[in-house]
Each structure stands twice: as C-alpha cells, then as structure tokens.
C-alpha cells in the first residue's frame, strides 16, 4: 500500500478530538481554498482543501470531524472510523496529522494510540503551543517524540509558530511513509478477544490485528464490510462470547495506563491554568445570573442584527432596483426583458438581501463559539430543552431563528444526537423570522385597535406584536414535544459536553466561518429561490391569451370613460392582468379551500406567492390592489381598508380576517429557502415535506379556528 | 465530606468531591472513558444548572457538563 510511490493527489487527514483546534489549524494551512460538502451518504460536513508543498503534487487536506476514540457514539465519529478502517476508500489518508491540545495531552492521546495501532503514518501536532510560555507549561518534545515513536511538531494557529516545520514534516511523511510507521503496538488485544480474532483475522480485509479487532467491533454498521462477512463476524462474536462494550472498556483502560506515564514524564503543569475561566464561569454559568446574562446577550445580538443589517439590505435592494430599471430602460420591451428584470434580477435580489443578516448572525455566533460561550449556553438550558426533546445546543438555533431560519438551521450541526438535531431543524422555522415583520405591521392595524395605556407607554398593538413572537416560540416548543413522542431512534442522547477554557477569538476563524456560510447560502438556497421566482413571474405575467386580451380591452375602455390618468390606468391594467393570469386562475381555484379562513381569491394569490418567501406578501398585495408601488406600507393599509366585499358591501379586511391571516403567517411554512436548507441538512425530501405539512396544517387549522370564532 | 463507601456522583451536593472508583453502566462508561473520565480521576461538583438536570463538574483539570443521569452511573468515594 505505502510502497514509496506517491499518488497523483495524496490525501492527508487532519484528525483529533473535538476542541483540539483542528479546524483552526486547517484554516491556517489552506486559507480560503476550501471545499465544503457532505461525506458520501451521510449528513456530516466534509471540509477539504488544497495544499501546495515544494517537491510534491497538490495535496488534498481533509478536515475529519472531531472524534474522541475509535468507538463512535455520534455520526461525526462514525464517519472517522468508517473512513480510517477502509483502506480501499477514496478518503483513506496516505498520512495523518494528529492534532492534540498541548494542555490536554493526558486525554487527547487516546485516539492517537488507536490510530497509531492501525499502522497509519502520522505526525503528532501539538496545537496551542502558545500556551507554553504563558501558563508555565513545559513539554519535553524530544522525549515525547522518542517514547511515542513519532515526530512531534508544536504549532500554534494563533501566532503561526511551527507551521513551516509542520509543512516540512508533511512532505517527509508523504515521501517516505515507511519511515513513519510504528515499530511497536501500544495495545495488544487481551485474552477475551484473542479467540475471536484468531478465527476472523484471515477472514477480514484487515491490515493488522488491531484493524481486525476494530472491524470485529464495528462490522454491524460499517458500510465497506460485505454482507456475508458481516454475517460471519456476527456468528464468530456469538461463538466466542465476544462482548463489544466490555472489550472496549478494557482496551481503553489499558491504553490510558500505557500513555499516561509517558505524558507525565514529558509534560509539566505549573500553577492553576483554569482559574481565570473558573472566575468567569462563576457569573456566566450562575443558576440565576447565567440565564439573565444570556437574555442580555441575545437582546444585544438582535439589536445589532436589525440595526446593522438595515443599511446593507437597503443598499442591496436599491442596487437591484436600479439595475432592473436601467436594464428595462436600455433593452427593448418584450418577454426577455421582463424575465430578466422581474424574474432573474428580482429573484437574485431576493436572495442577496438576506446576506447581511446571515453574515452578521454568523459573525456573532462564530465569536460566541470561539470564545467558548456556546457550550455554557447549552449547559444552562439543556435540562429545560430535554423536556421538549431538544438539546441544550438547540437554544442557539431557536434564538437565531428570530432573525432568519436559514443560518439557524445550519447552526444545528453542532448537535450530535440525530433526533435532537432533526427536531431542532423541524421547529426552528416556527420562530418569527424578520421576513414576517412587514406582514405583521400591516395586518395588526386591522386586527387590533390603536388603543394606548399609561400615556402611550403600552400600546395594544405593540402587545399584539410581542404576542405573535411568543406564539411562535410556544408553537416551536410544543411541536418539538409532539415530535419527541412521534419519532423513535435507537441513538442515545448525551450531554457530556466539554466546557473549554475561555479564549480570545481567532479572527481568521471568525472570518472563514462568515465567508463559508454566506457562500453556501448564496449557492445552495439561491438556486431554488431563483427557480421559484422565475416560475412566479411567468405565472403572474401570462394567462390564457383571450382572457388577457379581454382584460386589457376592458381597462382601456374604462380608462376612456372614467378619464383615468396614465398612472391609474397602468395600475388598473396590472391588477386586471393579474386576475386574468395563471396565478389569478390559481387564486380562484383555491378560493374554496381558503374560504373557511375568511380569504378571497386575491388573498389566495398573496398566500400562494408567499410560499416562495413571506416578504413577497406585501409586493403581491401592492400589485393586486394596484397600489403601484410597494414602498409605502401605509398606502397599502389605506387601500386595504377601502376594499369591500362586492356582494355584502362589508369591509374585507376586518378584525377576523386580519387575525386569521396573522395566525396563518405565524405558523405557515412559507419560505422556499428554508425548505431547501432543510433538504440539504437532512439529505432528502422526506423531512422538508414533513416540515411543510405540519407547519401549514397548524397554520390552516389555527387560522380557521380564529376566523370562525371572531367572524 | 466524601462518602465512606462508593456512592453515585448524582447524590453529591455542590462543592463535594471524590475519586472515581468505577462505572455502573457499560455503555456510558465507554463514552465517559473516551472523554477522559476514568477511575482514579478526581471529580468535584462545581454547580448545578437552573433546572437541575445538568451539572457543572470538574474532573481533574477539565470542566464538563454532565447530565444527572450520566453522573448516576459514576461511583465515587
């Protein structure tokens, strides 16, 4: 296998425990030349980057997910074991950079000794070497290297020390892998496993005894083990009374006993390195002040999100508006110009307008993560979240969801338990995101009288506004509770959360996160939004030719008889064309369905277009009621107030309809981008369909009940 | 005051500490060993979360958040 010949693209794997600073080192080594995707067949994020080294072809560096040992409990860890026990796989590394936190060597070397026994050429990278001067920590590198029989390189992704040496040792590893192979195993399988190994050793595609042992342990779920082999392993395990858990515990204890003396002999700790973190935690994780501080931080985050994002968002809208205008003025009139301006450019603007909020949100979340705060928030709320079937880490997603569900859903990747993660993804869109704000603003004025108490300090409309947000949160938690009982998974739930020491953030990591998440959003969700907005444009522009012509003729006639101005004529034309268009037909078609909620066909069109994205509501209302421009929310409001039912003459927008619409918008799954992200994160159509169905069902029933009670 | 006989760590009060003796649940034991919690380690309960289900504990020099039911399988003396 490693016969001295170098592959066309050698693969180097970065492996290490979670919190070892692996990804930080990956960022330093590859910069922004990273590709993010999923590992084949699983929803685990795979990060790969290119590394150019003198005298070598381009090296592919893969950042494997963090793992504690070769006995996986989460999807992330399973993936590491699966790829590292499959020498035939595409991702099997030619060499491994094992990253360990220099301050936690007594724990981080467990996986190291396991991988070493798998006969993988590797270098031990001691990250966070900057701690060596500060905390009175000393490490005898030559001694450690000699006793572990592996090159040891101290590096720091903070001040970049040791990076040059690390690159040199990667070159060495790839040019002469044989030199870096272990001479002696750390662990010899004990008596309990010897018999089963003796029977299976030749049966299994294993490179050595330890490889065979791991395959014996994990054959039931490893993808690269053929079905007949799996069956034989199962039989041999039963025949020899092989107890996987017991063997694992025995092996782990044995390994600790082997490497602990080595670490003790080479590493000296002076002073209490964690006292600073302890003092901060006394406040941050305090049973009373902790949650208060959490709420304060979240309020600050929201404030920043709305305050900072509004300027770039306005700029993006302005830019795309201007771009559309100038294209319309430059190109000749026709379907192509319409498609370009109303379909593609409007769609593109609709995607990019979310970018500032997504970038700012990830900026804050990356900082909180880097500092070490997110682990504390998860600790504070874990037991509350548990009751609803969620995990402490779900708090982050539920809070972020109030800005935008898309980055919030992407942030659930930190939840190791699949069921808890899925539940978080499913219920996060119920929290009221910023796109609902314009809809709420317009409709609340019809739903709630402008009554104020205490000299205007408390307004009934403001209370209703806050109530809608609360309704969203309550809906999310209760839905999670329902799913908790509906879904069953064999995977066990853990908290077992490390609370890392507080650190100043590495800004490079913050920047990389913001860049990567923004890019992913634009590329992945963007595609879907574009397609939907083009379809919407076509449906609301075209209709059966005869009806469209009839509508135009009628407008011209009315313009003549009623002496309408040019603007009024154009507005009326837009409105009549919409009614005659395919979208208009669709609105009339679904009218019977939405009638129990108190909606007419015009609201039906607005509802339908809102399924692409909620904020489309205002624009569609503007077109339908021929206001012309959607810039002025107050004009739409006046126009809506004048709208009468043609049969009864009653106002269409009364208290009942407005509340019914509000309830519908709180609960309904009206965001294509969110569904696209859910599909991506859950690897299939099943969960986005479930999400769409349950949210829309709640919305429909809720709106119907409210309307029937109030009407 | 450490218990004279091994007791589950979930019975500890804030501030109490002891030495881990063994685990009573093999599945959790495997996971706890992986993250560096093992017999011989010093365990100290630092504080409990607002709703009581998860505890902030210090094991040797490492800070961890463990659920009460996870602590129930750690025997400490």
How is this structure best described in words?
The complex is a heterodimer of chains A (711) and B (77). Chain A is built from 30 helices and 12 strands. Chain A has 711 residues and is α/β, with parallel strands linked by helices. Chain A has 4 domains: 11-180, Rossmann fold (3-Layer(aba) Sandwich); 191-268, no CATH class; 289-484 and 495-508, no CATH class; 528-710, no CATH class. In chain A, the strands form 3 sheets. A 7-stranded mixed β-sheet of chain A has the order 2-3-4-1-5-6-8, sandwiched between helices. Chain A has a two-stranded antiparallel sheet with strand order 7-9. In chain A, a hairpin with a 6-residue loop joins strand 2 and strand 3 (45-51). The longest helix of chain A has 42 residues, at 289-330. Chain B is an alpha+beta fold and 77 residues long. Chain B has one domain (7-76): Roll (SH3 type barrels), CATH 2.30.30.90. Helices cover 17% and strands 40% of the residues of chain B. Chain B has helices at residues 26-34, 68-71; strands at residues 7-8, 17-23, 42-48, 54-59, 62-67, 74-76. A 6-stranded antiparallel β-sheet of chain B has the order 1-6-2-3-4-5. In chain B, strand 4 and strand 5 form a beta hairpin. The model of chain B has no long low-confidence stretch (mean pLDDT 88). The chains are: A alpha/beta (711), B alpha+beta (77). The A-B interface holds A 68-69, 71, 73, 104, 106-107, 110, 245-246, 248-249, 252-253, 256, 269, 273-274, 277-278, 281, 285-288, 290-291, 375, 378-384, 386, 392, 492, 494-501 and B 26-27, 29-36, 38-39, 46-54, 56, 60-67, 70. Strand 12 (497-498) of chain A pairs antiparallel with strand 5 (62-67) of chain B, so a sheet runs across the interface.
